[in-house]
Specification:
single chain, about 700 residues, alpha+beta, Rossmann fold, 5-stranded mixed beta sheet, 5-stranded antiparallel beta sheet, about 15% helix, globular
């Protein structure tokens, strides 16, 4: 039997425990009343409510964070493997890596140029390059490393005008979901005066004439509430270059449902605008359409319910192409004539282009008059090609069992690009010639790892109710699998997010050391389509835990990372209100008791001997606000004061000036991984090292 180091790790031999003296966390008398089924009143105590305050606004919380971090740093700094892990991680991260290139501007309207990002190895942020050839380095267009000394200001998105003369780009500071949009003259590098704020969860889409673009924004938050207030009242806007933001035209909003979210899809010819409106994180959505030149015109509804997903991917003239799960749980590609726009006839007049298959359709794109479809077959990527009439054109041959991203581009392009990766294959970029159907290697990084010494295999295991669950195992070939190896078990299980194979420099340090990496594909994800997701959401959430924790007695350590720990109050902060699709909320009497039944914060029990735990969060995470981790860690430490609770370390690592993960500087990523692996090795590693 493997003992697991949850993220999760497995215990093989436990070194001597380190006594930890925790800071005293004040407990206050706070009791909430919730309405349960049949009008039943449910009282719930919340002694650490005060830890919900924003660290930027509360000196009291800031002091608590500093005290906890001091204890954690002292413990981690004394671990015998900490220095060795950081040294090796620095070596593993120090390799040149590039994104796949993308066409800069529309063919026929702009010069033949491409953009891509490159990191020399240890740069905190990747640099944006522009080049005349997809296989040439070109010149630096934007270097985010110049924006801050600590590398915490990141390039969060880019969009080129059709003529390739202007670039709209987004900046994010300290990992925040908030973005600032700026515009650059590509030839001179000069920034225009345009600056758009209070932007999050959306990109920029240019109008073909280059005089302006579409984007989404939220109202300016009240003072002190920018990083905690719920994301409400989203608006879709058009910005005319040169105008101040207050003059931007609101083209769509829904004040009757401020908690809903909307995005805009613009046809490639700029003729059609389609609003995609959702209630939360579920893919099912409403659709509205109008012509782009109908300024101030009414939107024609295509779909006015949330029964299905309808995701626009392309159009030819008035024919719109979409990915949908309508009559297809594994998704298919359909088309619709926008000239017949009406919600009465929409579903009845859909034309099937690519039928549903047994595999899960992850995404589709239309490039060079070819429909590229990306599927998951038992969590491995498969890419197929179809004509616009739905005729099969064959597969794109991939190097192995892994993941693939890309296949974007303009509809009249003759080429597209994609990136392939797996647990034993670093991200490698290919150019795909559409007429010939041939792939050409563009860039393969040299990561300094001999992958012939490692093995990756896909296996399946049976969950509590008999469901077959995929799991990928990665380890050294010379490792004797005798049940004593430290094993890191990782999974997600929610929001239709699929855990597909991919190379990680950080995890390679764990595997090189002699650890086993196990990544399970739990229900709640998207690996097997919407039925797999439905089986792990709302009152089926217990399936996710059953899929993951078959033998809790094996866990020797836990790494709860940026988690949602308070299931009764998550929906009152920032993006949390969108997650009600996935979890339900305590506002629903039918969900209160179920949510409290598995809420991590509310189920910490005095006297329980919890395994060694290192909670990780960031003080400026405004996606899953850090109060979740703060309150959970405080509850764990308090519970250990009771008799029989053991003395394993229950610590919290709080990163400064970082968010939920995106845009985190390379230096911080290395330091965090060194802390995590050293902590796990101390508690689940062999007595005498590797």
């Amino acid at each position: 039997m493997h003992r697991i180091g949850l993220a999760l790790s497995l215990l093989s031999a436990m070194p001597a425990a380190h006594a930890v003296e925790y800071p005293v966390t004040a407990r206050e008398e706070v009791v909430d009343e919730y309405q349960g089924p049949g009008g039943k009143t449910i009282e719930v105590t919340d002694p650490y409510r005060w830890l919900e305050a924003d660290v930027r606004e509360s000196d009291r919380v800031a002091a608590w964070v500093a005290q906890q971090q001091a204890v954690t740093e002292a413990y981690l700094g004394a671990l015998p493997e900490r220095e060795a892990f950081e040294k090796r991680l620095t070596e593993l991260w120090n390799y040149e890596r590039r994104s796949a290139p993308s066409r800069f501007g529309k063919p026929g309207m702009s010069p033949d140029r491409y953009v891509y990002t490159k990191n020399d190895g240890l740069q905190n942020q990747s640099v944006l390059y522009i080049t005349d050839s997809a296989d040439a380095e070109g010149r630096v267009l934007i270097d985010p490393n110049q924006w801050s000394e600590d590398g915490t200001v990141a390039l969060a998105g880019t969009s080129a005008s059709y003529d390739g003369k202007l670039l709209a780009y987004q900046r994010s500071e300290a990992g925040s979901d908030w973005r600032v949009i700026r515009v650059m003259d590509v030839e001179t590098g000069k920034e225009l005066d345009d600056e758009l704020r209070w932007v999050k969860f959306g990109g920029v889409q240019w109008a073909p004439d280059g005089k302006g673009f579409y984007y989404s924004r939220y109202p300016e938050p009240e003072e002190g509430a920018a990083y905690q207030a719920s994301a409400l009242n989203r608006k879709l806007c058009y910005h005319k270059l040169g105008d101040p933001q207050e003059k931007d035209v609101v083209i769509y909003e829904n004040p009757e449902h401020p908690d809903w979210s909307s995005g805009l899809w613009v046809s490639e010819d700029g003729e059609w605008l389609v609003v995609v409106e959702s209630r939360g994180t579920d893919h099912q959505n409403r659709l509205y359409v109008r012509r782009a030149d109908a300024e101030g015109g009414a939107w024609t509804p295509l779909v006015q319910d949330f029964d299905n997903e309808f995701n626009p991917i392309a159009s030819e003239g008035s024919r719109l192409y979409l990915v949908t799960d309508h009559n297809a749980p594994q998704r298919r590609v359909v088309s619709f004539d926008l000239q017949r726009a009406s919600d009465v006839v929409f579903r009845d007049t859909l034309v099937e282009v690519v039928p549903e298959s047994a595999a899960t359709l992850e995404s589709a794109s239309l490039v060079g008059d070819v429909v590229f479809t990306r599927y998951l077959e038992d969590v491995a990527a498969v890419v197929k090609r179809y004509s616009l009439r739905g005729e099969p054109l064959g597969r794109v041959e991939l190097p192995g069992v892994g993941s693939v991203y890309g296949f974007g581009g303009w509809q009249d392009a003759t080429e597209t690009f994609y990136t392939y990766t797996s647990y034993d294959a670093p991200p490698t970029t290919y150019r795909y010639d559409i007429p010939s159907g041939e792939s050409e290697l563009l860039f393969q990084p040299d990561v300094g790892v001999d992958f012939s010494k490692f093995t990756v295999r896909r296996e399946f295991y049976t969950s509590k109710d008999g469901t077959r669950i995929p799991i990928f195992l990665t380890h050294r070939k010379d490792l004797e699998l005798d049940g004593t190896n430290p094993t890191l078990l990782y999974a997600y299980g929610g929001f239709t997010i699929s855990m597909t194979p991919g190379y990680s420099a950080s995890r390679m340090a764990w595997v090189e050391k002699g650890g086993v990496l196990a990544v399970a594909n739990l229900r709640g994800g998207g690996e097997y389509g919407e039925p797999w997701h439905e089986a792990g959401k709302l009152k089926n959430k217990q399936n996710v835990f059953d899929d993951f924790i078959a033998r809790p007695d094996l866990f020797g350590a836990a790494l709860p990372a940026v988690g949602v720990m308070d299931m009764l109050r998550f929906h009152t902060f920032t993006a949390g209100q969108f997650w009600r699709d996935e979890y339900g909320s305590a506002d629903d009497p039918e969900m209160v008791e179920y949510l409290r039944g598995y809420s991590p914060y509310h189920n910490v029990k005095p006297g329980v001997a919890y395994p060694a735990t290192l909670v990780t969060t960031a003080d400026t995470d405004d996606r899953v606000v850090p109060m979740h981790s703060f309150k959970f860690a405080a509850a764990l430490q308090h519970a250990q004061q009771s008799k029989g609770a053991g003395d394993k370390p229950l610590l919290i690592r709080i990163e400064s000036r970082a968010g939920h993960g995106a845009g985190t500087p390379t230096k911080k990523l290395i330091e965090q991984a060194a802390d995590l692996w050293a902590f796990l090795w101390e508690h689940v590693g062999p007595k005498s090292g590797s």
